[in-house]
Amino acid sequence: MTPEQKPDKDKAEKLSEWKEELPVIPLRNMVVFPQMIVPLFIGRSKSIKALEDTMEKEKMVVFVTQKSEEIEEPTAKDISSIGTLSEIVQLLSLPDGTTKILVEGISRVKIEKITQDAPYFRAKINRIEEPEGMTIEAETLVRNVIKNFEKYVKLNKRIPPETLMSIINVDQPGRLADLIASYLTLKVDEKQAILESVSAEKRLKKLLEILDKEVEILEVEKKLQGKVRKQIEKVQKEYYLKEKLRAIQEELGEETEGEDEDQPELGEYKKKLETAKLPPEVKEICVKELDRLKKMPSMVAEATVIRTYLDWLLELPWKKKTKSKFDINEVRKILNEDHYGLEKVKERIVEYFAVLQLTGKIGSTILCLVGPPGVGKTSIASSIARAMGRKFIRVSLGGVRDEAEIRGHRRTYVGAMPGRVIQSIHKVGVGNPVFLLDEIDKLGADFRGDPASALLEVLDPEQNKEFSDHYLEVPFDLSDVFFITTANQQDPIPRPLRDRMEIIEMSGYTEQEKLEISKGYLINKELEKHGLKKDQVEFLDESIQFMIREYTREAGVRSLERSIATVLRKIATEIVSGDKKEKVKVNKALTEKYLGAPKYHFGLAEETDVIGVATGLAWTEVGGDTIPVEVTTMKGRGTLTITGQLGDVMQESAKAAMSYVRSKADELGLDEGFYRKYDIHIHVPEGATPKDGPSAGITIATALTSALSGIPIRRDVAMTGEITLRGKVLPIGGIKEKFLAAHRAGIRNIIYPFENKKDLEEIRKELPSDLKFYPVKEMDEVLKVALVKMPAASKSKEKKTEEKETPQRKSPPSIEGQMFT
Ligand code: ADP
Question: Rounded to two decimals, what is the model's pTM?
Fold first, then answer.
């Protein structure tokens, strides 16, 4: 929309013909100046109505600018009070409903009073007289404005140079200002300010200010552009010259010295290359890369890539090793020094070292410590490092899904780096550390390749002598690294990896063991970490037990360690601030003061025996846990609902339990058609944790029987076992963790599959002595122990079996010859 200067005489002379009251049209982001002809698009229906009306009569409107362009329906207070009286020269209705008009600005007007709001604005207006003629001040201003406008046009490519000619011919200073203002790309409020300046001098001054600022901005922009261009030209020129020089050198078959001057780091690399102990093939690569770097301008991106690559090659410990030893006595001594209990684990490790000492070969099998968090896996590995006199490094593989994380990215990738193995070796600075690969059961795999196979290469003694990292491109010898791996569970470890490993299982601790570990190790370690001495703080047994029972619920001792640290931190603060002078004896009350209200309830979950709720035992990667299984029945049509995020196997096991109960309805004294009359809902709470596995079978069947017969389940009994359709109880895994979890939850009676009896015998000594065990072969036996009383068989059955009322029991029955305590 370029405004055009109106060539003919001032139409304002015809003012007497115009009415004093005219339609007003608000404009969003435009200012119409007097004497200009501008095209406008009008879209708002209110404005179109105003146009239609005026076209039939006076063909005049007043254009005013809105104070904010966002307002869709401006009211009288949203529009400026000074506008431009304009004549509609042409009107064209477009097919999209908008109207295009050509208007000619006539004169500045003041809106005195809005006389009508709808269907469009009308207002009483007053023409603003503009003084004519040229004063001295105006003349000076005009000259300056024209000078600056010339500069502006030169710098701004969007204004055609001919514009200047049309400006010079204007003799009215006020009109000149309006004309220039309409050419500039200004903000609406700046334009409006010029429209509102009535005297020519004032208008010109404002314009001069604006022009000064605009010219300055344009000049800075131009300077910047020039600088950037020069920079690019310089790099290109350098590159070109260097290439040329290289070509000349090649032609002459000679090498020139002297490039080092502008790349001082080249000298440093050379020095490093001489002092670093590198294998010959690595040295060769470094020399080649250094040569490439020399011939490259230091600014190009590729030079940075080469420099990073050289840094890696020069800094890796290709030959650097710590002196180390295999001495089983030392290993035994240090493992005992650092850890309480764990006899079997320690013995297995000592045996492993005995073989190492004899064969002198490491790596044929890799140690893999499997167990829940906080049972001392990392700490055993670091003790092994200490016993061998080697450095220790740990890398977690949890969530690694990309092969490149193990083996690195090729150098062609932007920001490529070696994989975690080489990075760790670089960090530890020697080629023979004890290297702990944590959580190998959490390795993932996706389209980016399988990290497990890369890991296999890392661990395989046949291959790891020449481990190839994609980034390094030269093989690195990992055969002297002593790898140890850890996992929370065995099953998810990829099969080929598992075959390479010697699995050592570590299980959770009993309350007694946790107490000993705290007293013998954790507290001392934390005291030292907090800069405290034994004669300053003492933990009473009652406080440790309180923390174990009511602030933690875990298989290991990690949270316990953290709780001890919290207490010590608070005590340290008190000692430093002078509040505590004598030795602090941490008892139960003080523990609660420091740790806040207990997090867990110790003891049985339920106050009384409940109908339809049985306690099952689960085995997860963080150790064992108790899980309640709830069943309710409602009048209905036999729908079975199972909720609580159960996996497929657990769902099937629920259905098997249901079928068992149905087939035994008679014997259990249940209404035969119960499954047609009731809706049954099985729910395993804590829905956020996905649960799976068959071992909840007997728990679900017990809860179902209780819910249907109305007989409560004993709250101090927990159970685990798979169920068949005929009610046989099948063996399950993870018994130690499960039984420890039951004990943690305050339960002392445990029903478990008879076939697991030999497993229990093996670990009986490691379990708390107050647990009572009930091995079972059939579901009947489960119900006998778990239900408060046995359900009476229904009438039809009673005739066949001898009628006998099962007495209500307070304590569980002892099953002759089967009870195992
Ligand atoms: P994990 O690696 O199995 O998750 P950590 O090795 O990190 O467990 O053990 C957590 C903390 O408990 C460590 O400070 C560790 O020294 C300590 N700890 C675990 N088991 C024992 C133990 N049997 N004797 C002494 N300290 C132990």
Answer: 0.62
